[in-house]
Amino acid sequence: MDTLIYSASPFKAISGSLFMIGFCFLLGLGTLLPSFFARKEKLAKRIVTGFIGIFLLFVGIGVSISTYNTYRNGDRTVLVQVLEKNEVTTKCNKFYCTDHVVETGDGQKRYVFGLSKEVWDVVEINACYRFTYYPLRPLLAGYLQEEDRYPSLYETTGDITLIELANCP
After folding, report:
1. DSSP-assigned letters across all residues of 29-90
2. Are 76 and 133 in contact (CB under 8 A)?
3. Which residue(s) pair with 30 in the sheet?
């Protein structure tokens, strides 16, 4: 008997990436266009501003391709047992950020999932869960990564769409 812990649509799961894409495109265009039309500014300032705008547009294009590859390759469902729950605190500029992560394993590989505080509070150590997520697909992963003779013991996880409490095998 599976109990639903968390559920999100695919659109909601990748909405953070979509926001980042829109932000990069708007900021890139907002920086690039004035550099062409601001005739009163010095030429060096216009060129630097133009390059910054072009760079932001390329970042937006790169994030778009990476998000599309992640979504196109589909989601993956794994049945795992929670091994550890950790609150990871790091310094983010002047402030401290806290991430809530669970380290899980299926007997062959380990998976680390970043969760919201509310979901993290519900998840219990040594319990089994069925996670459905989109594995991250970096922009040039297919071209730059060589086949390794030794398989990785960790699987890269991405946006989570479903978490269900499940019976352990």
Report:
1. HHHHHHHHH-TTS-HHHHHHHHHHHHHHHHHHHHHHHHHHHHHHT--EEEEEEEEEEEEEEE
2. yes
3. none
Q: How far is CA 23 from CA 7, 17, 28, 29, in A?
A: 26, 10, 8, 10
Q: Is 50 exposed, middle or buried (0-12, 13-18, 19+ CB in 10 A)?
A: middle
Structural Rg of the chain based on CA atoms: 21
Identity of the residue numbered 66 = S
Cβ-contact 35, 47 below 8 angstroms? yes
What is the token pair recorded at 28?
């890139």
CA distances from 54 to 48, 59, 92, 108 (A): 10, 9, 27, 44
Contact residues for 22 (Cβ-Cβ < 8 A; gap 6+): none
The rounded distance, in Å, linking the Cα atoms of 68 and 148 is: 25
The pLDDT tens digits for 76-132 are 899 999 999 999 888 888 888 888 999 999 888 899 998 989 999 999 999 999 999
